[in-house]
Amino acid sequence: MELECERECSRGEDYRLIKLTIIDYTRKKEQAVVVECRGHDAARFHSIDHAHGWEQDVVGLVEHKDGKKKLLVCFVCETLKAEKAAEDHIRQFMPKLAGLDAVVNIGPMSIAGLEFGAEEPDVRQDV
């Protein structure tokens, strides 16, 4: 979900904030984080420290809450699949999403500070 800005952003037209929901299907838990997104189809996500100038609910999502570990996210697209290659990839790995005319971003993602269960190591995986 893309979040709207109250004022004109000065970070370039490819800059936006998005609410990224990380889901652990095994434990049936999820955690949302607002990340900076740059690039259009070949996206890059990075954690942000503040969201000054955005709507109050967006600022509330970004601000660090006392006692809660800050969630850090980093993703850089290394491979972009579009059209038939993207559709084949989606049919293989996410068949319920087939037919949506989407692109697929593949690259390393690191997530630190995720607390779904007991003490778990930070996660780094190619997605």
UniProtKB/TrEMBL annotation:
Protein name (database record):
Uncharacterized protein
